[in-house]
Each structure stands twice: as C-alpha cells, then as structure tokens.
Amino acid sequence: MERQRDPRLLVIGLDCATSELIFDRPEWKLPTLKALMARGSYGRLQSVMPAITIPAWACMVTGKDPGELGVYGFRNRTDHTYSGLALTTSLSIREPAVWDHLSNAGKRVITVGVPPSFPPKRVNGIQVGCFLTPSAKSDYTYPTDARDEIAHLLHGGEYLTDCTNFRTEDKDDLLRQIYDMTERRFIVLDNWIEKKDWDFFMFVEIGTDRLHHGFWKFFDPKHRAYVPGNKYEGVIQKYYEDLDGMLGRLLEKVDQERTNIYVVSDHGAKRMDGGVAIAQWLIDEGYLAVKSYPDKITPLAKLEIDWSKTSVWAEGGYYSRVFLNVAGREPLGTVAPCDVESLMEELTRKIRAIPRPDGSAMATQVYRPEQLYRAVLGVAPDMMVYFDDLLWRAVGTVGYDGIYTYENDTGPDDANHAQKGVYIEALAGNQGGGRGEDWDILEMASRFMNASGVSVAQNAG
Fold first, then answer.
1. CB 262 within 8 A of CB 446
2. Is the CB of residue 54 less than 8 Å from the CB of residue 37?
3. Which of 206, 160, 167 is closest to 15 using CA atoms?
4. pLDDT higher than threshold 70 for residue 232
5. CATH topology for 8-270+417-460?
C-alpha cells in the first residue's frame, strides 16, 4: 500500500528568465509554460540586490538576504586586506536551505544544479552540483555513486554543468554547447523524476542565462549592435520553445493532481549598452593611485597600487562594489573614520552624475549595504553601484582612453541582468489565478515549505 503523504513539490528554475520573453510574447510557442500559467498564478519576481545568480538562488532557498548570508557576489572579500576576492562555494552558505529543512523532516529531496551547490552537501536524497563544478570528473554529486548513475544514463557521455565559455565570438559553438548541456541535463531529469522516490525536486537550467548573454544583441532591436535579419535573430525564441518542449515531456511523467509546481528565475535580463570603467574613473578623479599606469587593459589585481595614496578602489561586474581604504580597518588605510560619511556622500553625488557618452543622464543608483539588508555579515562593500539601472556594466579593468567601453572586459556579452525575474505558481487542485502582483524572492523559501506541507517551525520542533 502506497504511503499517504503531503503533495509533492517540483521547482523549475530557469536562470535569468525574464517576463518580457515568457509572458509578453504571445507569438512564441510555449504551451507548457502557458498551461502552468493558466492553471495558477504568475508574475514578476523581485530579486535581491545584487541581482546575480550568486547570491540570488541562495537567497531564494534560504529566505535570507545577501547581507544575512554575507555573500555579495561570485567573489567576496574574506578580510580587510588587499589580497582580492575569494570564490563563493556551497560552503559559503551557512543558513539552511529548503531542502535541509525537508530532509530533517524525513522528506526525500533531489536538487540538480541549484547555485551554489558545489561541493554538494549531504541531503536526504540526491544533490547534483551547479555550474561551479570544475568538471564531471570531480565529486559533483551526493551521494558519490549518483555520478556513476548519471554517466550510465548518458551512456558514458560527460554531464555538463555549464558551457566552457559563454563569452565567446564563436556563436555556433556556444549554441551547440547550450543545447548539449540542456539536453543532457534533461536526460537525467526525465529519468529521476519518474523513477526516484521524491517529495521535493528542484533543478536550475542555466542555459537560459548563457543564451541571453551570448545572443541578446541578435534579437533585440533596441540593442546598439542589432542587425535586422541576422543569422541568429531567432535563436532565443527557438531555444525557449525547445526548452518548453523538454519541460512538457518532463511534466508528462509527473502526477500533477498531487504535485505543486513552481517556475522561478533568480533575476531577469536586459540589453547591455556598454560598460563604465569604474576603476579608471577613480584613478582619473584622484581616489585610486597607481605607481605606474599600464600600457594595455589590465585587471585591478595586477596593478601596482599605491595604497598609501589611495582612498577608494572598486571591483567591476554586473554592478560595482566600491571599497574605502579606511584607517584602522585596511592595512594602509588613508581615510579617517570621521571622514567616511562625507567621502561616501561625495562619491554618491559624483558617481550618480556620470553621464552617458552622449551627455544624457544615467539612472544610476548607489546603495549602502546597511540600507538594503536586515544584517550585514562578512566583509561587505562600502557602496554598491547599479549603472543606468543595469543597462551599463561596471568594468574593473584599467588602461582605457576614457571611462566608457563597448566591449566587456571578460569577453563578449550582450546582456546585463534585470532586477525582476519571473514566477509561476501552479498548485495542485487550484485553477486560474491569472497574472498577479510582483513577489519578492525572499518570500519563496516559505512558499516552498508551505507547498511541501512542512513549516520551518514544525521542522525545528
């Protein structure tokens, strides 16, 4: 006799998926996603700041903001020295995730590719590492024999957690990599979702993110590099439609009468107009001193910085992290603690005044972590900058003739992140809530727990 249990929960993560593509393009053939939308409720999902894969997924599944996690991006300062940034891993996340609570409650869980999940952690079930996995030869699964099972399902082929390089000019090869990765992942998903015993199943497909970064300029008429009728104009639509077909075949193996389903993304996407070389600007403005100016584009970490004459430095990325060289905090601090507030006010005013290359005003936002987060743990940036509402990327390298660049310093990239992703909630037995209000990504952990029939308080008790 089959055991009675709470409804199962399936969480489908589509990294970087954006409402403009899923909700607002009726001509796209997305019958699976549209059926889930018709069955439940859907809308935009407000991401955390910064709206980046890491920490956004971790925030979603823990209910904690970046400050509470002490994670402000893919790389974080580990102390107040000048030695650079350390890579975030699963070990950086010390708060329990939804699957930890469910495991403790005796639920069977499977997670595949939810960042950051390398190295994989012990769960009551299976955990497969995310894009941080070095290779399929590493111990990227818990338990370790799940790796052999994946290899068997792929007939000895390599499981792909990411593209080898999504910032490339070889678009044909990038597209092949994205499809190879997605198709191999779904071979595993199709098998496990049907044959494994699970109460909670969550996976993240990162192909959507790699697709946006690699191909956005080819389909968006507002992108400065868009050329009508180009070879790749239909690539994003076709991938979304093909992915929808894969999701449809997956859901055929799921008893939707007793399965609650969510589709979520960690953030959205938008065109990238260019980059603002923030470290270059700091040099030009006299805040950052270098002993010798480079004769080529050079990363900040490779510059010979004169810390005794530096008051501010900054890292690039989808947003900029700005750090003050504070006396008594940094080894060679030059900014007196009593001057920190006035310096940050000065920087905020001047950074927000940086115009676009044509002289028009940018909608730049400057934040302080204590204004954004319920707690500020770890070594947080002193200031966080979104250039022109994320239409412009922050560039951390130095050696430009000016502060603007139209080439990403980490390789070709067509898109930046947008603050709002998507949610679709299709609960078993419910019908048709329609398009709803924006939700907050920090609400999702409790929604997942409720949809699994287990409260955090109940689990703690």
1. no
2. no
3. 206
4. yes
5. Alkaline Phosphatase, subunit A (3.40.720)
